[in-house]
Amino acid sequence: MFRWLRKKTSLFTTQQVPVDAILEAMGGDLAIVLTGGGARAAYQVGVLRALARRLPDARFPIITGVSAGAINASFLAAHPGTMEEAMEDLKDLWLGLDIDKVFCVETWDLVKNGLRWLLRLGTGGNRLAPKVRGLVDTKPLQDLLTERLTDPHQPGNRAVPGIAHNIAQGRLKAIALTTINYGTGQTLTWFEGADIATWERPDRRSSKVRLTIDHILASAALPLIFPAVHLEGAWHGDGGIRLAAPLSPAVHLGANRILVISTRYRGTVEETARSDIEHYPPPAQILGKLLNSVFLDLVDQDVARLERINHLIEKIPEDKRGGFRPIETLVLRPSENLGALAAQYEVKLPWAFRFLTRGLGTRETKSPDFLAMLMFAPDYLRHLIEIGERDAEARMDELVALVQG
Fold this sequence. Notes:
The protein is built from 17 helices and ten strands. By secondary structure, it is α/β, with parallel strands linked by helices. Helix 2 (42-54) runs antiparallel to helix 4 and helix 2 (42-54) packs across helix 16 (378-394).
């Protein structure tokens, strides 16, 4: 059934935490929350690989992912082996990546998409103007995920059977991936498993489904850069957009311990006060700050809000909490600036794509975070995995304590 059984290296196939979400959450499971960050998500593999070496049979009953983290979350949830085996396979996948295995980088493809943007702008949105569905074509990523996560004996079936298998075996309680509905602006969390009622708020809701390749692609569809994905009659994109409560899906699914792996480097006071540019900010600098604010900043705010709620709950006598409980959270983040690191590997990108990103000003900033999101270069990805492993080893006692409860 699973392609992992046939070939080891082939992988089958937060601004606020709302109080009502905390109060509704029941159960007592360990969850992992994998955030976005494009290519920087390789860092998550390093963290988990180090943890797996210490606890090879560890498992996360609840797995949630958004943006690039949705890819890692899906592979982890679908793998039939131990966590150690899963992380070795996922490491091999990332180290086998190159930018042309994620999206098309042929010169003509980039020129063609660029011309479409220009024609649309130049014609004032005339109905005869070509439709624009992202700056790049992500068919290579779609093909890769289809090859590694779907059943080869059921061509055309885009479901990820490994997830259902692990749920049936009791190895997984639930996995949740988040997207945004571009038509309504509503955040939608798609989850599989867990006999839990769906939740709904004015700006976000959930849906219990059989997860497919399309859900993964939609969650990872960087706005404007990657094309949106059609799901249940609507166009969906990167779930990090407007995701005010990144921890909320894990809480709703019953977690009482949460490991969060962020890809955002938190500098010192001196570092954050130091400018990355010398002149007027180029588009790449602005895009990098915008994308960081969308995908990564809210995690820190979400964790801070959860800690305050925990403090309030702990002041209430246990027999008067009405079943409510504090939720333990551990956040791991890079000890090095992954954006600044990306600049060292920029020369390894294909010429046409390098020409495009330089035109946006990636060489005019000391920390091209925008470039880091698209830096699918094997040497850069290997470096990120190594950083993740070192960071996890440095906090291994905390990690083990959280996982073992």
